[in-house]
Amino acid sequence: MYKYVIKRVLLTIPVLLGVLLIVFTIMSLTPGEPARLILGASADQAAIDAFNQLHGLDATFPERLWNYLKDIVTDLDFGRSYRSDKPVFDMILGRFPITFMLATLSIFFSAVIGIVLGVVSAVKQYSKLDATLTVTAMIFASIPSFWLGMMLILGFSLNLHMFPSHGADSWQSYVLPVLTLAVSAAAGLLRMTRSAMLETIRMEYIRTARAKGASPRDVIYKHALKNALLPVVTSLGISFGTSLGGAVVIETVFSIPGLGMLIVNAIRDKDFPLVMASILFLAALFCLVMLIVDLIYAFIDPRIKSKYLN
Amino acid sequence: MENLLEVKNLQVHYETDKETVYAVNGVSFTIQNGETLGLVGETGAGKTTISLAILQLLSERTARIPKGEIYFKGKNLLDLGEKEMQLIRGEEISMIFQDPMTALNPIMTIGKQIAEALRLHNHQGLSLSEIEEKVDEVLKMVGIPPERKTEYPHQFSGGMKQRVVIAIALACEPQLLIADEPTTALDVTIQAQVLLMMKRLRQQLGTSMILITHDLGVVSKVCDNVAVIYAGEIVEYGTLRDVFSGKVHHPYTVGLFGSIPSLTAKTRRLQPIEGLMPDPTKEVQGCRFADRCPHVREICRRESPSIFAEGSHQVKCHLFREEEKHA
Ligand SMILES: Nc1ncnc2c1ncn2[C@@H]1O[C@H](COP(=O)(O)OP(=O)(O)O)[C@@H](O)[C@H]1O
Ligand SMILES: [Mg+2]
């Protein structure tokens, strides 16, 4: 098991390196000079040259890439933000709790709602309830989250004044963004849980359990549910990653000062070190979540566990 | 002596949105204490459907039983509710399914899966440790070391899995065991082992059994009575001797054996018979075997044959009725 974890952690290195190369290249190719964007249109040429020299922006692409990598490898130095001149990781860690809270809350609610309704839907297959849930889930899964966010603001903030439309000052301000993120994730999980459950119920071991004299209820909760949740766990992990990404959009819609907003602003400023570090941070986090998911999977599925142990 | 099981004129249909499948069309047979009945027939003949009907495990949504009675120890199972059936399943009637690879829950230890059956029918109020002892005992009985009870199904070979399935089915010492092609999915060498073990346990526990199989060799070794089933009907029914060496046979049975076999013949697998079973979604007038029968006559397509009986031996065919008349 240890060996497997170490192997997986080492495997994240090439993944992160790949992400780094892609983002670095894209950032270099897109138009716009950081100096102009940060110093303003009225800055004179001398100030701009000084800015470029200070941040090493006058070097060629390979040289800049080399310098960036060298700083990371030798000093674990990811640089300072061009605009605020603070170390990038201080800024990221300052904003991250808000985003983490958004993603965690939305995953929590979507998991509870999606799994419970998915099981209900499967158990009551062919009923009106099942049909209603399936159609509703399909609708919510296909609504773009930024549009849903705006509609919720329109309804609950501007018209009903029930929840704030922006900021992250109180728990009330989390309600609408979490709802926005949770709804589509819950819809996806409902569909996933339902189909996994239906597939499991058809399995022969379910019939074996019934032939032993177990009640239909026991069979569902003791045999079917745990088996059906195996694929759902994986998709929960992926949803967590997706909702971190989704948070970027949602934070913009709801003007929430989280990591998403930080990244969007940094991209606009072409604040190289900040963009690079934020995205690497998210990518590393995603790898970590997927590793945790795989470990959970091995914990609940003995077939996978014995594969790792060998 | 009272019959342990008596199935009377059982019919089972599957009604889907598009069509009705006439899976079982008036089947009757009886089993007495300690007896083994072999149910032989091609895939799709309705063998599994009959077993599931006895246990009342047919799909509630599609399966209908328009006619028939299933008496078990004098009670008609079709009149019982789900709760009462739960008390019978696993305790008085058990079933072994065809494919041991998928018949066990992959994420539950085999010990727990056996213990579940014991816990569900724990009338003696056994404690947890007493149940564990019983699990060990049952495992030993099927030839699995009790230490292996904490292992999961994927750690067992196919033959060993089928032993676990048998252990689950026999844990509560049922009076009737339905074994639905218990060895079809196994290697030939393992088949013999598993079958021998089943035969030994059956004698040891005095269990009656319905053995569903393709293998005529198995039938001749294990069964007391044989029912040959074709398109949801029993076409020939009798003792082992009747069916293997009786004077008259249903043309389908003859086809199955290749030639009329003797009890001393070597193990022989079912011989494929030319043609296909009739479409189970169509109601049939006349004999269901008519299209494939080498002796088909005009009356066969018109009238459903009645049963020709000679002692314990029954054949459902026009051939013999007419011979009787001519004689
Ligand atoms: N759940 C079901 N729904 C519809 N038709 C079914 C179902 N189960 C079995 N059948 C049909 O009923 C007939 C008998 O099937 P089965 O009892 O499985 O036969 P056997 O066990 O002898 O192979 C076949 O034609 C099969 O296609
Ligand atoms: Mg079958």
Strand and helix layout:
The complex is a heterodimer of chains A (310) and B (327).
Chain A: H1 2-29, H2 34-39, H3 45-54, H4 61-75, H5 88-123, H6 128-142, H7 145-159, H8 172-201, H9 204-212, H10 216-253, H11 259-269, H12 272-300, H13 302-309
Helix pairs in contact in A: 1-12, 5-6, 5-8, 5-10, 5-12, 6-8, 7-8, 7-10, 8-10, 9-10, 10-11, 10-12, 11-12, 12-13
Chain B: E1 5-15, E2 20-31, E3 36-40, H1 47-55, E4 63-72, E5 75-76, H2 82-88, E6 93-96, H3 110-120, H4 128-141, H5 158-170, E7 176-180, H6 188-205, E8 208-213, H7 216-222, E9 225-230, E10 233-239, H8 240-245, H9 251-257, H10 298-302, E11 307-310, E12 313-316, H11 318-326
Parallel strand pairs in B: 3-8, 3-9, 6-7, 7-8
Antiparallel strand pairs in B: 1-2, 1-4, 4-5, 9-10, 10-12, 11-12
The structure holds adenosine-5'-diphosphate and magnesium ion.
The number of distinct β-strands of chain A equals 0
Taking the alpha carbons of the first and last residues of chain A, their distance comes to 9 Å
Largest sheet of chain A: none
Helix content of chain B: 25-40%
Separate helix tally of chain B: 11
Instruction: Give the rounded overall mean pLDDT of chain B.
Output: 90
Strand proportion of chain A, as a percent range, falls in: under 5%
Low-confidence spans of chain A: none
The end-to-end span of chain B amounts to 36 Å
Describe this structure in words.
- The complex is a heterodimer of chains A (310) and B (327).
- With 310 residues, chain A is mainly α.
- In chain A, 81% of the residues lie in helices and 0% in strands.
- Chain A starts with a helix and ends with a helix.
- By secondary structure, chain B is α/β, with parallel strands linked by helices.
- Chain B has a domain at 3-86 and 212-325: Rossmann fold, CATH 3.40.50.300.
- Chain B is built from 11 helices and 12 strands.
- Chain B has helices at 47-55, 82-88, 110-120, 128-141, 158-170, 188-205, 216-222, 240-245, 251-257, 298-302, 318-326; strands spanning 5-15, 20-31, 36-40, 63-72, 75-76, 93-96, 176-180, 208-213, 225-230, 233-239, 307-310, 313-316.
- In chain B, the strands form 2 sheets. Chain B has an 8-stranded mixed β-sheet with strand order 6-7-8-3-9-10-12-11, with helices on both faces. In chain B, strands 2-1-4-5 form a 4-stranded antiparallel β-sheet, with helices on one face.
- In chain B, helix 3 (110-120) packs across helix 4 (128-141), helix 3 runs parallel beside helix 5 (158-170) and helix 5 (158-170) runs parallel beside helix 6.
- Chain B is globular.
- The chains are: A mainly alpha (310), B alpha/beta (327).
- Bound molecules: adenosine-5'-diphosphate and magnesium ion (MG).
